[in-house]
Each structure stands twice: as structure tokens, then as C-alpha cells.
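Recall the central idea of this unit: under ordinary conditions, the amino acid sequence of a chain determines the structure it adopts. In this exercise we apply that idea directly, starting from the sequence alone.
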Amino acid sequence: MNKLMEELGLDALGSRYTDEMARIQKRMSDLTEEGEGLILNKGVMKPLADVHETEDAVVVTMDMPGVEKEDIDISVVDEELRVSAQRKSQSEVDEQDYHRRERTYTRFERRVLLPASIKAEEARATLNNGVLQITLPKLSVVVRKRITID
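Accordingly, the structure predicted from this sequence is:
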């Protein structure tokens, strides 16, 4: 920040913009931390999820890039859907002068409060091109009746 002030020809102490620039710098830092907090929490990624409700089911869609279906665990506990997964990758380079092997493991976890009671035993899930779709049939289908105002 001080280097930028010097390049702009502003004296750090005498500039009337110092407080404003410090405020902007703090806000940028806060935004960066907030963004990282939504994605990473103690080394665990929180995948993006869409939840929508139809007349007879709750449908949850999540991004699970690079995850194999064997590495996904889906469960329903009380009124909450829990999804956890792990993505594993390994790369190896064997050149004449060196050998390098890298392994990475990424964990995904997401909990979603369900808007309705569901039949967990009839739930279905599909994984297609890194997108997980979970269909949870509702326990009782509610027929809504419109009430007119007199």
C-alpha cells in the first residue's frame, strides 16, 4: 500500500486518501476470507447445491467434479440430507534425471435441511458428468387448496 502511495506521489501521512485506501484494503481482505470460508472449511470443500421441490419429491443437485460414484456417501438423518465424498488423483513423472509422484485427496461435505418429510428408502441418486442428482420422494403429498378472500 505504501509503495502504491509513493508511486502516486502521495505522502502516506499527509494524504487525505489514506483512511479510505486502508478501508478498501481491509474490505478486500475481508471479501477474500469470506470467499475462502464458503469453499474451504478445515480442508473440506462445500459443494454447490440446488434444492427444488416438486409436488411429490425434493430434488437436490450438487457439483461433484472428478468424484467417482464409489467415493460418495449419501444419508438422511432426521430432516437433513448428508453428502460426503472424496476425490483422489495421482500423477507420476519419471524422467531420466528425476522422479516425481503427487497424490491429492479432496474431501467434499454438504448438509441440506430438507423442506419436507421424505421416504428415505425410495430415494434415488445419479451421477452424470460430475453432477450428483438426488431425488427424495415426499412422505405425504400435500394437495394445496386455494382459499379465496371474501
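The chain has a mean pLDDT of 80.
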